[in-house]
Fold each of these.
Amino acid sequence: MKKIKTAVVGVGIFGEEHAAVYAEDERVELAIVCDLNEKRAKEIGKKYNCSWTTKTGDIATNKEIEIVSIATPDFVHRDAAIEMASSGKHIIVEKPLATTVQDAEAIISAAKKAKVKLMVDFHNRWNPPFVRAKEEIEKGNIGKPLMLSGKMSDRIEVATKWFKWSGKSGPHWFLFPHLIDLICWLTGEKVLDVYAIGKKEVLKKAGIDTYDLVQAMLKLENCFATVETSWILPSTWPSLIEFNLSVHGTEGRIDIDLTDQGLRISGKNVYNMPFISGKMEIYDRTHGFVPMPIKHFIGCVLKNKEPLVKPEEALLNVRIIEAITKSLQKGEVSFVKT
Ligand SMILES: NC(=O)c1ccc[n+]([C@@H]2O[C@H](COP(=O)([O-])OP(=O)(O)OC[C@H]3O[C@@H](n4cnc5c(N)ncnc54)[C@H](O)[C@@H]3O)[C@@H](O)[C@H]2O)c1
């Protein structure tokens, strides 16, 4: 069987995850990776045995490539996504789709015009506890959802050491996409308005002009939610993340806590709870909810099916976080266009 050719634009930390899936999945071939940073493009090209480039045009003009992952930093998805979609490539874009509603709408419109598939990588929809929670809610096991509360945070090194672009994003743009998508997906409801408070202190002192922490209240059609995010979890926090979500219903409650993923290691000098459920090599095969949505997207292209995450849901996600950002700046309730 002829293999579909694939490519990745932006092969930093997360783009490499996409490259690894394409290199391993027998249905496709990783043809080429692209990164503005030549050293990184070359390194990943060598590691996954494919071509590499620093110019997106080399992918756009290659007629054999059908699927392209966009994993550039949060605020620069637009140009690469539009260029690839307009060249007829099916695109899977990292979350958030964009950091402005205007950019998100432009990407969706380019994909619709070119009649290509577009999916945003909300990978927690493949994360087993959330999948089970959705099934329980749909079965009516906790009655009608009334109130949700969730936290998703990162240890401070994510903001201070991982990225040069932290000041152009923030915990709200980097982490809320997951929590907010889960809330909308689990309840099947739309967010109507938001009110948010945040603090810029620790990261600002380190020269990174973004929020340390944000707390937001969301009013949905028939329920409400509180979400909280921090980019300054202390470096001594035993896990890279803090991640939990509770759904209170009329007849029950669901609690999910993924901060501890079932493994605690008291090593010689460190107490650690490793992040293992997203991706793990087990006997030479990759398992976890990180590769699954990328594999799902390949299947959708092969079988001409609509991906599980709809472009409109990804746009609403951006609308909600843009409204949160406005509320943070103005100190008042911000309405979400639905
Ligand atoms: N799904 C998740 O849980 C998850 C986790 C981490 C990151 N992400 C998302 O993935 C995206 C990338 O994040 P990351 O952690 O890999 O960041 P990163 O900084 O490690 O990698 C981004 C890469 O893109 C390259 N780049 C920048 N502009 C480019 C351009 N115009 N063309 C080509 N390459 C370009 C950079 O040189 C860098 O190598 C972000 O949107 C982020 O939110 C998702």
Amino acid sequence: MKLDVIKLTKEFVTYPSESQTSNVEVTQHAAGVLDRLGFQIEEIPYIDATGVAKLSIVGKLGQGTGGLSLMSHNDVVPANPDDGWSRSPYSPWVAKDKLYGRGSCDMKGPLSATICAAAHFKAAQLTAPLYIVVTADEEIYGVGAKHVTAKSKLFAEASSGYGIICEPTSLRVVHAHKGSVAIRVTSKGRAAHTSSLKGLNANMKMIPFLADMKKIYEQVLSARRFRNEEFTPPHSELSIGINDHNRATNITPVQSICTLNYRPMPGIDTEDLIDRIRKSAKTHGLHFDLRHHGRPLYTPVDAPLVGTALKLAGKRKSATVAYGTDGMAFIKKMKQMVVLGPGNIAQAHTVDEWIELDQLRKGVDLYTRFIERVCVQGQP
Ligand SMILES: [Zn+2]
């Protein structure tokens, strides 16, 4: 079967699957297309933290385990038409060899490229299976990918094979990216009119904790053990946010919240860092909550997958990036992954988001050659 990548991208963009809303309809649309291509479909549904129904799927073509997985997400960041969009963000349009619309680049275009590549093959041709993974909530701590990693039977059998995270890299090969840690530390006080001296100011308990965090902040930006030269920049910041949400200056602040974010790199002892923050919170009588811990993605540059990806993409060297992907969750089971997809990450999350038609076509071509090599010829 032949599928048109521009038409399919437009179909997907038409669904406003912003992360705070349901992605069930657009995922069912993708499942319908994969079903017509002969894929077996596994659904991984869940209800998110705000009670909204979400759906991820894993499709499989062919027999056996391992093979090749092409992985995308179909949630998008919000698009407010008042932010200056030339047209409705969910009425995709083509102009001057670019396809515009929210999610065209990040990453319904790349997702469409994987499906259009798959359409060139029939199950009977394949000596190793092809999997297409579509996740929800990548933009919200990769929750969909966490569910897929923990629950999907097809993902479990795919995980011994190769994985391509098809996020836009301008078709450059990325062998590593940073992880992501999010912590929330809370101090509780007692409200009162400040003139009464009967309140307990929640911010006071936070101050010595913040002094500890400042030390860690300086250390992660300077100490060698928090450095990885493969990345630009070679350090990650401990990003510190403070908020007491106090409604008036004459009320004693009843709560104080410190948010901490860090992007761990391969080889850095993140557990120890988290532990130090946890201990400091405990020492100062604060509540500690590890909200998210996404692992860095790392496939050694001399791994066969990286070599194959470079060869097929016509590139000489692989790169690292500072942003994260669903790979932070997948890496718990799948060990050989690269990020490689059409479109430029610079266009992601922007007003009038676009992807070049040429990138879409090249993406289809590259994924087709990847499937041919790994799933038809059975070569590493
Ligand atoms: Zn993305």
